[in-house]
Structure formats: C-alpha cells, structure tokens
Amino acid sequence: MKRRLIYAxxxxxxxxxxxxxxxxxxxxxxxGEGFYKDLFIDxxxxxxxxxxxxxxxxxxxHWEEFSSFDxxxxxxxxxxxxxxxxxxxxxxxxxxxxxPRFRMMMIAAADGAEMGASWIGxxxxxxxxxxxxGFDQNQNGITRIQQFVRAGGGYAGFCAGxxxxxxxxxxxxxxxxxxxxxxxxxxxxxxxxxxxxxxxYTLQLGGGYYHDADLIPGLTLAGKFKLKSGNHYExxxxxxxxxxxxxxDSGHLVLSGGHPEQSPATNSNAFMAKLLTYAVAGNHEPxxxxxxxxxxxxxxxxxxxxxxxxxxxxxxxxxxxxxxxVPAADEGKTLRITLTQDERDVPSSDLHLFLNQGQYAFNAxxxxxxxxxxxxxxxxxxxxxxxxxxxxxxxxxxxxxxxFEQNATEYxxxxxxxxxxxxxxxxEWATTFCDEGLSVADINEVVCSGGTIPLTYTAADCLEDPxxxxxxxxxxxxxxxxxxxxxxxxxxxxxxxSVPSHINANQYRLQMTSGDIIAVTENLFTIxxxxxxxxxxxxxxxxxxxxxxxxxxxxxxxxxxxKTKIQLIQQNTSDVVFEAxxxxxxxxxxGTYSSLNVDPGAYYFVISAxxxxxxxxPLEVLGGNILSLTTDATAFAGYPMNVGWQIDAGMNQRxxxxxxxxxGMRVIxxxxxxxxxxxxxxxxxxxxxxxxxxxxxxxxxxxxISEDGLTQRISAPFNLMRNVLxxxxxxxxxxxxxxxxxxxxxxxxTLPANxxxxxxxxxxxxxxxxxxPTSLANQAGTHTVMMPLSVGSAKKVRLQIVNQSGAIQTESxxxxxxxxxxxxxxxxxxxxxxxWQWIGEDNCQLDxxxxxxxxxxxxxxxAITQNTGTNSYTIHAQLxxxxxxxxxxxxxNRSAPIVLWRQFTAP
Length: 907
Known about the structure:
This protein is mainly β. Helix content is 8%, strand content 44%. The strands form 14 sheets. It has a 9-stranded mixed beta sheet. Strands 23, 25, 26, 28, 29 and 30 form a 6-stranded mixed beta sheet that branches. Strand 43 (655-661) and strand 44 form a beta hairpin. Helix 2 (52-59) crosses helix 8 (268-280). The longest helix has 13 residues, at 268-280. The protein is flat.
C-alpha cells in the first residue's frame, strides 16, 4: 500500500476564543510570500542594466534581471522569456493562472549610445522586441506586461520605461500628452511632497513628461524638477503615479521622466524605497479558491489557458487558499487534511501545507497554527480535538526553477514548475477514521502450487468486520478466495495461507478486506510448478579459455535430493566434454558461469533435473590473436586520429572492443564495439570528444580486446592534446564592470571554414552572461578580440571560447569583477584643480567638462586618461568667488559609460 507520513498534532485547548479575538483578519500577503520574487528588472535589448538592483537589495527584496546587448540572439531569448515557451506558456511575469509571478517590474533608460540613436529610439527597439509573439501566436511581451499589470503587478518606468507606457498600453488615454523637456539633458533636484522628500542630483537624459496630465484620469503628479534660471527657479513636471480608473484591481504605476534610480544622493535608497513600496501596494489581496465541505475533494489539474481559473495548477512560490467551517456540533472531532498529486503528473514537486484559524494561512510567524514543510507533495495532517469556527488552509508551490538564489532569468532545472503543479486536496473531520486501518506486506518469494503463502499484515483497532483474503491475477481480477486464521485486533500479524493445487503457474497479487476496507500487495509474486524454462547463454561464440554465462528459470522448488546436471557436448561427435553438478534449482532465475578451456570447435550445453532437460543454443569455441595496434604519435581531441591493427587467420567471424585509456590504463572512452577482427590489416579514424578530457592526456594508450575477452592488445603510449586553442596571456586578476577587455588567443591549426568560434563571459556556475555577436578568426596563429564586460554587479567570471555547438575550446581561470565607480573628491582653490577617485581599469579615457551654473557656460572641456586611484584636473579658467560650478565626468570606450555630476562653490 502507498505509505504516507502523518503528522499527529495535539491541539488540546490551544485554540481558545481569546486567541481568535487577538488574531485579527489580515488578508495582505506577508513580506516575501505569495510571489516567486519581488522584482523583475527588464534590462533586455536596448535597455541599460540599471541601478534598481541596489534599491531592491536595500529593501531586502529578491529580484531577477534580464540584461543583454541588442542582437538577434538576445532578442530571440528575450522574446521566449517574456512572451512564453512550451514549458513556460505564460512567460516569466505570470503564474499559470495569470496572476503576477513578481510583485512588480521595472524598466529604465534605453541604450541610445550603442547604435548612435536617441534614448527614445532605444525604447522603440525594445518595443519591437516585445512585439514578437511567443509559444502562443496571440500573445507577445506587450500583452504579457498588460496582463501582469491588470492582475495587480506593479510597474516602475524611468525615462524610456516611462515613454514606453504608450506602446505598452498601460496608461489609459496617455497617447498625445508627453513631450520632451525643453533642455536636452540636465541634472536637477527632484522635489516631491507626494512622497514627502526631495532628491538632489537627479539626472534627466532625453526623457519626457505629461503635458496635459490633468486630462488623464487616474494620473497624479507626484514630483517636479527644480531648475535654477537666473535669480529664480523654474519647475517642470517629472514624476507621476497612476491607478487605472476603470480597473481598481490593476497594479500601481510609478512613472518618471528622469532617473531617480541613478541618483548619487545619499537619500536615493530611501526615496526609491517609497516609489517601489507604492508600486507593490496595488498587489492583489489573497483570494479564496473555494469553501470546502466535510469530506469534499478539490482537484487542481487544469493547464494554463483553461477558463476554469479556480482549477489551474499552482506556480512556483504561489499560494492557493481555501476555507472550511467546523460547526459547533463537530467540535472535539479529529480533523484530517490529505494532499496528494496525480502519479501521472511527473516529475513530482514539493508542496507545502499551512493551516490557520480565523485568518489566511502563510509560511510566516503568526500566520499559521500548523505547517508541513517536508519535501514531496504527499502529506496527511491530523489534528485532534478540533474547535468550531472558520479555518483557513493554504497550499504553496515550493519547488523553484534553478538557479533560485541567483538573479538569473534563464532557468537550468525544474522548468516543469513554470507551467504549474497539480494536486488533490481532501478535508474531513470525524470521530474515527478507519479507511487506512489495514495494510499488507509484499510477498517476495516464489510460491509453489499446493504450498503456502507466508503473509504479514497490520490491522488497526477500529476494524469491526472479519478479515478475508483473496488471490488476484495481474489484471486485478478475482481468481480464488484463500483460507487462513486471521486476527483483526490491533497490531501486526502473520499467517500462512494455503494455495489450491489447481492454481496455474503465473503472477498474482494478494488482497485483504475487512468490510469496505481493502489492502492489496503492491508487487506481483509468482506461483509456479517444477519446470525448467528460458535457456539463455551470454554468447554464441567464445575464445578458447573464455567464460560463458548460462541462465534458466525454475518454476518452483525441486526435491533437495535432486541435483542439477550441467553437460558440455561436442556437436559433431555427441561426446560429453565435461560434466558438473549443482544444488537443486531454486524458484525463479538460476545461473552459472563456465570456463571453456577446450579445443576450438562446435559445442552445446544441456541442463537436466528431475527428468526435465533443457538444451542451450549451439556454441562455437574460437582461437586467434591481435598481432599489432598503432595510432598517431600525437593527436588533437576533436580531430581525426588514425588507428591501425592486424589480425591473424584465427579471428574470422569475431569482433572487438576498442577503448581509450590514460597512462594508468583507466578507461577514458569507448571508441568502438563490434570492431572488425577478420584476418588481415585494418585501419579507421576516431575523433575524441574534448569534453572527456580535463587536461591534455599524456601517455594515452589504446586497448583492443575481443568481445569474448580472451585476446587483447595495448598500443604504445602517445600524447592526446585536449584542443588546439589556448589563451596567450592570463586575464588580470581584477576586472571592472563595463570594461572593454583585450583577449588574445592562439590556434595551433587552421579550422575548417564552417567551424566557427565565439567568445563569451560566464559566471561561477557556468551560466552565460554575454556572448560576442561576431565570430572569431579561425586561422592558425595569434588573434585579439575586444570583449565588453557586460556584468551589472561585482562577481566572479571567466572567459570561454566555444565552437558553434557551444562546446568549450578553452577558458580562463575565474577572475574577480569589481563595480567601476567615480567618486568626486572636491575642488582645491590653491591650484584651481578638481580631484576624484576612479575605481576601474587603468588608462581609461575620460571626458571632463566644467560649467558655470549661473550662465550655463562651459568654462573647461577636455579629454584625459585616468588610472585607478586619485585623479585630478587643473581648471585654467578664472573662477568667480562665491559662484556655483558643475563638474561632469564621463568615461569613454567602455561598454557601460559612467557619468558623474557634482557641484562646488569657488571660495
């Protein structure tokens, strides 16, 4: 019978009216519950990888980011992730029933610099990537984002992420109302009484604002840019919140024409926390699937797209909530909750179970009375002396796609949970449960006709009806009832059941019943008679001195005084070559090994016992030798290796097995089986898979052995080089985010024209971070390629060069990536110089610009080279005492430029 783990939790006097009064109804999700993660950062094609991660980390949120350069390969990956695939039909944003998988999503600046286009142009390219349809031709990335927001998911858009809301259709009636700011780009103070604080040093780079915001219902101005103009300040609308007036359950939107998420101000985390907290405040409250009745069963097995939303499978990290009401008349009874998964729904997954009274149940302190976090999906939760009132039960999908703890969007394992996990839930309460009060142990031995079945069974004290036993065939049909003396008292019992002699030899199951309670053995067992069947020998040909395996079936036990005779007979003369004996055949499979140290010729085996004879197939004993085995002196893995061997006249009609071995004769790879061992000279070519070798294989050998294991030959040692490609110089021990890294590699041979190479960055787990969009040179010699380090945060990476199938040809060691950063040091009036700290690569090109804040006049502009550490620049223009000046530093020749804006006042 199927075994289930039962948690018997005694709750005597635990749930009291006072307790229920203290626990008020709290329908909101506790932090970290009800969603896969908190934040999805869309940094896909043409969108810059952004600082939103640091703000999410400040809030303690879990987040994921899709970050990539804009090329055909990444656009295709982005479409699959957003629009959906066969094993994730909803796309990354949604659970199987269309509910938000993340609490909110975020889109920021477009990468205008990459293609020389405007920031808005970059947003347009991103929209085109979102417009591509996915697994469902009627759905694309845009419709998925619309579904996400409509179902309560929050949205934060900055600059391009704000402008794209028109194309995304998120703000009702916004189409004609946003235009560019009057200045191309500037840095100002973002002042917001709506969020109760100001944010200085807020960058504006080509974003827009709502010109007629009061014409859009649901849109609220939440902040303005404060810009100094002469002796006064001008204000421009900069920040809005939006709640859809027609769909109050839609998620909250935060929209900004500038970049508060990139501000270097000390209060930027606090300001962004207010924006993000507002966005998730629109998330849906928990919803009941249904109210369960006593003894009712609720199945959740519908797939995505079913109109029956209440029965669609559960997602990764999602909750399904249920309620049941225990009346006063049933107080004090035993409550049993059973959670199972359809055995056809594989692979199985972890489901967690939570129970609470008076309010929704979650995996959080104060939100459950009982919880079951054990692995697997099959659970039985039992509570004694249940009290009356409303009870809340929740099921949580607790298997996540790997890697769960990394901030990656392309999952490598457990992808089946993306389309949901099915289950069945049963809630019942009663004075006594007895439907599992009888179990029977499996029978693991062959039973003889007319003999007895040794039976072990366990009964519960609640059994009232007599116990009976019956024999079922493999199809579950009744064959006959069996007699025996049964005890239906509590405990484990043993009894021998008599098998009628007329029962045919076959496979059966045993069934035990007590009234309506039924228990059946899980496995099939054999009832047999004295027969010898199914002769099998391991080969039809074997070398002299070789070994052969013989097996046969015995239906039931023979008399212990009867021995089994094994004979080898010469086929042409019928002479018995040798004869041996062993104990009587045991029921089931019997077998023996025999060494054939006989002359070459034709033979056959005969097995005899109790007047029965079993004749085995004809057998040929052969002779012969392998005279030589040679290969190339040096070979490259992945490229043809020549192998030759010579066989004498005695090996015809035989075959061999060729393996590659290391210097210690350990097997590295099986190169061939059934290799031709006919007499003569033979040759062929093999290519060794480079993935089999961790390093070059020095002193490798080939081992050729006949399939019968008698004759073998080992080649002379040779060197097998793992590949023909290597890195010329090691990478620096430390690299920096956004850096362009020069990589030199060397090829020992010219590769075929159709064998392309490409370079890529991967993380410690081997997950790809960036791949070069163009192929590398594949001619022999030394070559150099520039690789942008498109990593958004500090981590360890390695560089790999791979072929067109993705196989690694060579790779660097792991190197550390630090976050590049510019920090302003200040202005030194003595020598009229500004200084700053640069954390990044040496010889980095930098544009320096100094502006008069009063006149907006540029008083200094230069291009210099900076190194890691402290750098300085002398301002040759005369500065006016007491006047404010702005310094703008911007890195060049990097995949991710860094801009620093600061103000100082001349003494």
